[in-house]
Amino acid sequence: MKDDQSGPRACDCRESSPDRPCEAALAAYRRALLAGSLPQDGAPACLRALQLVVTDRDAPGSLIPVPPETASFAALGPIEEAIGRQRRNHRAVRASLAAFEELYAEVHRLEQPVLTRLVGRAVISKALDAAVGSCQEELLTAQPGGGRPSHVLGEALPRDLRMLRRGVRQRTIYQHTVRSHRATLSYIEQVASAGAEVRTVAEVVDRLIVCDREIAFVPAPDEPDTALRVQHPALVSMVVRQFDNAWSRSVPIRPDGAPLRSSVIMSDLQRTILLAVVGGETDASIARRLGMSRRSVAEHMRKVSEQLGSNSRAQLGYLLATSGLLEP
């Protein structure tokens, strides 16, 4: 019998255990010690395997008992030799792999890291300046949160204008709410006049910047003032697909004096707000996500409530869900 954990055993009868032979083997060895010998056909196989009995040259057909201490040299010698060989093989393989590990580390030290954590606004700003400054073909940006602070726009404008003068194509997505934010509109008018393409959508999920489809910057989840610089081709490609998907659903802002508001934009924005209401979101949560004030969210809801004759938020949610207004 074999043990799953310890492998083959010297005694393979059912009564044996990994660390103790069967009673039949012990009894046979006892008889051999007392009688001085044991008939060959009456010796359990494990006694021979453990080298505890040997053939009696003077009495063919008989076996002579051997002291366990003497038998251990013959029984354990091959096992210890095999263990020694495995240990030598283990050391040799480990030494070979160590040489390859050094080579691997040396090669990869020369490569740029595919993911870099940037902490602090100053560090992030310098990294962005370097990436945008070396951008040669295309810059993609998505900016959630509505209108951007004036000082941020002031820092970005000279950098973006220099890039556009080099012939780099810039595509930027904002949320619809920037269409009433003067500082952001002023920035958009200037970069659009220099050739940038700007669109808006009801909701921008994440902030992202992609340079030449080779390097991307994305915010680090749940870490304020922290960003990730991504240089792995597969990850950058995934970020670009996210941008292209939002771009296909967005509405252009044209610097030709066209009205900044339209029924399409208002419908899109209202539909996003109302879907959030049906989903159980609070006014504060909706406002944060869409980059607008709670008062504006409440005003949109008030107008729809009047149209549907709703007297409460719960009733509004029910009427929206059953009216068909939110169907694509």
From TrEMBL:
Pfam families given in the database record: GerE
InterPro entries per UniProt:
Sig_transdc_resp-reg_C-effctor, TrmB-like, Tscrpt_reg_LuxR_C, WH-like_DNA-bd_sf
**Where does the HTH luxR-type domain lie?**
263-320
* The protein, known as: Helix-turn-helix transcriptional regulator
